[in-house]
Amino acid sequence: MTNQWVVVYNHCMKNDAEMVTIPKSEYEGLCSQVTELTSKVEWLMEQFRLAQHRRFGASSEKSAGDDYGQMNLFNESEIASDILVPEPELIEIEKHYRKRKNMVNETGLPADLPIETVLHELPADEQVCPECDGHLHVMGTETLRRELKLIPAKAVIVEHVRNVYACRDCEKDECGVPIVKAPVANPVIKGGFASPEAVAHIATQKFVTAVPLYRQEQEWTRLGIELSRQTMSNWLIKAAFDWLEPIYEVLTVMLCSRYILHVDETTLQVLHEAGKPAQSKSYMWLYRTSGDTNNPIVLYEYQPDRKAER
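The structure corresponding to this sequence follows.
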């Protein structure tokens, strides 16, 4: 009996216990299988819990640089280039030829782009004939190639100076001299040094090309300009309230005067919203005119819920 163990089990269909003797090696093998199967079940259950969390659980991850507010609603899209795409060619459509609609010229560039000509000349001491040592003159030119030159954004200081006028005749008569000043348009932000071009550039970078303000701040720093994201945020908010909100209100009145409107909402999460946890849903509503209008209007409006009153 030294190499055998006694195992006691209950039959499912019997109330009495039966004793069965099995070899020790077989018993140990069964124990090993039970341990292995238990480990597999635990691993599979853990994978299931992780999958459920990834699908339904809340995420606390934030993108780098997002400490100053929520990132854009729309992600930046990248268009992949393909060097295998052939050059533009004429295509036949109903027995006549025309260029592809998306091609303006043979390079696909707008025809009204300004052209900067780089003239390559021989130095004066090299303008000598190699045969008779006579002086060379220009007999013509040849175009070698065309290149697309991109000019990065640059910053300049715009100083507004206006003339002040006075009357010479009044000065001679030693009477009161009227002073007339040239009119000057109000700044885009009162008390600030922002120009319309600067605000438009920052807004386009953020809301059209999805470049967050912290990256724009880094870009300005590389150019030697200390323009903080807080200042740019103030510019965007102030310009939106002073210049864009009146236009938005007029468009809202025009939109609501239409008989048919299309409305839809999409969910999003807003960080640091008062009275709501970060995992709760908020809604961005879209309103637009129907296709029968000659002047289509599309407006967005943020709301914390989707109640009927919205």
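The beta strands are 4-10, 17-23, 91-93, 96-98, 164-166, 179-181, 261-268, 282-289, 298-303.
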